[in-house]
Specification:
This protein is mainly beta. Helix content is 10%, strand content 40%.
């Protein structure tokens, strides 16, 4: 059984979580060009490696960021998102 460490609830089984997509900075919709917006919406880096992703703990309703090695299918780190915390970059 795969276990994910929820930053609020601790180690929980994978079945309690939902993948929320890649963690990416969204361009400002008011100032982004069509090309910038199209790149954000449609293009993804599919190469294996360490990715930052949004995950959701279904039981508690907590969204968090996970760093996951997609090559080895391992969760490296999970933490709550803080828009003002540049250390998470």
């Amino acid at each position: 059984m795969k276990i994910i460490n929820c930053p609020v609830n601790g180690a929980r089984p994978l079945q309690e979580f939902a993948y929320g997509g890649p963690f990416r900075d969204m361009p400002d919709p008011a100032t982004a060009s069509d090309a910038e917006w199209g790149d954000y919406v449609f293009n993804r880096d599919g190469a294996p490696g360490v990715k930052r992703e949004w995950w959701y703990h279904l039981a508690s309703g907590v969204w968090f960021v996970a760093e996951r090695d997609t090559l080895r299918d391992r969760f490296l780190k999970t933490y709550l998102y803080d828009a003002g915390d540049q250390a998470n970059d």
